[in-house]
Amino acid sequence: MAATRAWTTIDFEKDGKQSDYMRVPFSSDKSAYGWIPVPMICIRNGDGPTALLTAGNHGDEYEGQIALLELARTINTEEIRGRIIILPALNYPAVVSGRRVSPLDEGNLNRLFPGDADGGPTAMIAHYVETELFPLSDIVIDLHSGGKSLDHYPVALARPGLNPETTAKIRTLLEAFGAPYSVVTTGEGGGAGSTLYAAAEQHGIPALTTELGSGGTLSARGLSIAANGVRRVLRAYGIAPSVVTEDSAKTKFMRSLSRSGSVYAPRGGLFEPWVECGANVVKGQEAGLLHSFEDPLAQPLKLVFEVDGVVICRRFPTLTERGDCLYSLMVEVS
């Protein structure tokens, strides 16, 4: 893989708390030789494991961004045994514009791994994480939320692992984080192997991601899960053994049904949901209505669940187009 074109003034081997940027070169009408400032903090105190913590992979997801900014401000170097690398606004152009994707190149960062050193700015960010930060990392947490388009039940998600050893390590990480549900995802889901946590899996690094909020605003519950989950992980791995957090929370392990458990809009219209996130549903149960503009006097289309499961997310906006995912389901695993 080609060498990264991004750089930083942070010395990852130096003790103390440092703050700089991943400096991503970007030539524009306003700045021919400029760079994009992706905020990055490194806190190190001697030898020990390294935790890579990211948020703002999608710019309209806020619980993780606030949780990591607060952690970077408040945790002291003396509390650390090892290293924490924090990027609270990973796709910075998307974050400052409040968008899922970058306004510079329409890049969806969580669909671009392993990235490209000579690609657009979003691909260069992915490439820097892949080539420079993953080799330093022992665990990875990438905090997400539902963003503007989803109403999402708070969950942690992880890939199954490449072998029994990495599977066990991923389970340990999920148990330490302690989200209400921990969901194992498959290759069918959005992004498959091109997401950050799937890319970490390919490096053999235990990694999890989350979905902690809804509708592009801030969830107090989601923020609490993010903040306490990250601290529990840092304590469990001995990186911050004395950090203060809420008591450990027991997680319930689930499996995403992905496409087979999703309800998609067969046409455009106005979506009227009948079922809340976190609800148990059964095959044949009515999920809601889809109202059409094309024939105002026609009865709305009834939406039906095709399998049993628990609602992990549903569409947040009412206005809907053909192909939009309206519901997704998960099921419990032993």
Tell me what you see in this structure.
Helix 1 (63-74) crosses helix 6. Strands 1, 2, 3, 4, 5, 6, 7, 8, 9, 10, 11, 13, 16 and 18 form a 14-stranded mixed beta sheet that branches. The chain has a 4-stranded antiparallel beta sheet with strand order 15-14-12-17, with no helix packed on it. The protein has helices at residues 63-74, 92-97, 121-133, 164-177, 196-202, 220-236; strands spanning 16-26, 34-45, 50-55, 82-87, 139-143, 150-152, 155-158, 181-184, 207-211, 252-256, 263-264, 269-273, 280-281, 286-291, 301-304, 309-315, 319-320, 325-332. The protein is globular. Helices cover 21% and strands 29% of the residues. The protein has 6 helices and 18 strands. It folds into 2 domains: 16-256, Zn peptidases (Aminopeptidase, 3-Layer(aba) Sandwich), CATH 3.40.630.10; 259-332, OB fold (Dihydrolipoamide Acetyltransferase, E2P), CATH 2.40.50. Strand 1 (16-26) and strand 2 form a beta hairpin. The protein starts with 15 loop residues before the first strand and ends with a strand. The mean pLDDT is 95. With 334 residues, it is of the alpha+beta class.
